[in-house]
Design brief:
globular; five-stranded antiparallel beta sheet; 9 strands
Length: 200
């Protein structure tokens, strides 16, 4: 997949927006002297330069994948003033979500069940390592703060002799205020990849 056009567009949109407004809406830090945002994402801090849109991890250990750069730029550009509602919705309840249900299932739900369906205690441990907490949904669930205004809830239903484990990925009802739906097809998979690396 060629992500360069999406990356160029995201940087152009980012450069046109007021940085203080983006910082306020995204609930992130902004240093006007340096022209830098500090964006917490999946347990790590990322620096985003303004107005150029350059993205680097604060630790500076590795380069930042292009899909992560695009996601962080989209968040800064799109995040609105809405706060979390505390009500969970499924992916198909997001605007146009039914169009992306197939990719979402392949990138998020199947990996969730495949990685953690037989080891639900590791799901909770991995979520807590990213600053999340166990929540009373399904048989086992953890809510992870992917971005400052975007918690993701990973839910498992444990299997038995008749049925295999199953799962779902849920979002706060405020989710459409902060990212376009197609980004929510990608975001849980990135989280699961990091959670898997933390505990396996």
């Amino acid at each position: 997949m060629n992500l360069e056009p999406a990356h160029r567009q995201a940087r152009a949109e980012f450069a046109r927006k007021d940085p203080r407004s983006m910082a306020d809406c995204g609930a992130v830090g902004y240093d006007p002297a340096k022209g830098e945002f500090v964006v917490p994402f999946l347990g790590s801090d990322y620096i985003v330069g303004y107005p150029g849109g350059e993205v680097r991890e604060l630790s500076g250990v590795t380069g930042v994948p292009l899909e992560v750069q695009i996601l962080l730029l989209h968040y800064l550009v799109k995040a609105g003033p809405a706060r979390a509602e505390g009500r969970l919705i499924s992916f198909k309840e997001l605007p146009g979500g039914s169009i992306y249900t197939g990719p979402f299932t392949n990138r998020a739900v199947r990996p969730l069940v495949g990685i953690f369906g037989q080891k639900p205690e590791l799901l909770v441990r991995a979520g807590e390592m990213l600053g999340g907490e166990r929540v009373p949904v399904g048989d086992v669930a953890v809510r992870v703060p992917a971005l400052p205004k975007i918690p993701i809830t990973f839910v498992l239903w444990l299997g038995d002799e008749e049925f295999p484990p199953s799962g779902n990925v849920l979002f706060d009802a405020s989710a459409p205020c902060h990212l376009p739906t197609e980004d929510y097809a990608l975001l849980p998979g990135l989280a699961l990849g990091k959670m898997k690396r933390l505990v396996f």
